[in-house]
Amino acid sequence: MCLLTILKIETLKIEILLTTEKLPDKALLECAKKMLVACGKLSQAEAEDLGTAGRCRKIDSDGSTRRFWRLTGGDGPFCLLAAPAGTSPVELAESRSAWFIGRHLFKKGAPVPELYGWDESSGVLLFEDLGDTRLQDIVVQKREPQAPPGAAALACYRSVLEHLAAMQYQGAVDFDQSWCWDSARYDTQLMVEKESGYFLRAFWQDLLGKEYDEGVVEELQEIARQAGEAPADFFLHRDFQSRNIMVQEGTVRFIDFQGGRLGPLGYDLASLLIDPYCSLPLSVQDELVAFYLKAIDRYLTIDAVDFKKQYTLLALQRNLQIVGAFSFLYKVRQKPFFMDFIRPSLVSLSHRLGEPLFQDYPLIRTMVNRGIKELVPA
Prior knowledge:
Layout: H1 3-22, H2 26-38, H3 44-48, E1 56-59, E2 67-73, E3 76-83, H4 89-107, E4 115-118, E5 125-128, H5 135-140, H6 151-170, H7 188-207, H8 214-227, E6 234-236, E7 245-248, E8 251-254, E9 261-263, H9 265-273, H10 282-296, H11 304-331, H12 342-353, H13 362-374
Antiparallel strand pairs: 1-2, 2-3, 3-5, 4-5, 6-9, 7-8
């Protein structure tokens, strides 16, 4: 056998191996086939073709441990298959939340993907494929760093805010808290444990390798107490940022809502506007807050002064969470993508702490500024 033939055979073997590794295992694929046939999305014959690489392609996720595959039919991509990494109670509970919360939001008219099926035993979830274009892509396209977003991006933001206001108000109607897998409500305890506590553990201790003064904990607890005074009876997405907002044929759509629960209005707004993936200038953030106030006014009357105070407190909480999450994903999950966004998030946090509302919290201000100086780029 000639060398060229041997090389071709070995190359084919490698391609087959890589293709097999990118396909879901047989049990997951069979589960998906049955659900797609049952919901009428595919015929039995069409479903059988999903076992080929051309019909089922693995796609990357961001920070999630869940696995995703794009399913393609005769007319092109039509569905995403999501499956947890395992079948632990926590992983299955998260999948259950995605199913029930997603169907609830869809019925309420929120721009979320249609869900086609869910298997309780494996956690397999099938939902509408919304393509690959994210709000982040629209914002950063042909844009200089720190420059205002272009007209198309601003139009997207306004559309997002209109839909956000509707989802926050209407999504809370008939919302069943038993659907929530993590916690049923955003409250002070969650802020301390999973936001300021996350910042202290994942960033300060694990990433920088330093110990913190207990006085910092007391400052953060007091800030969380004040943030917890905001009314928290609205639907809260809790990861409402530009990579979780798809843009399909000019229409915005929301994904990754499985962490939904009841919470305050200002948190998701802050998540969107201080999002380090887009780094909106402060003037644009202020403009969009004003636009949001007009959008939410269609559903309820709120005091703008009180809301802006609540927003500032909640934006700080979200900023702490972002730094903690990115530090964890970089350090523990070994995802270098997130390292580039830690420093901008810290700078944003430092600017927020410079506002008059936080003048009585010198320890956390000092810690954040020191963190900016000591963070070594990867």
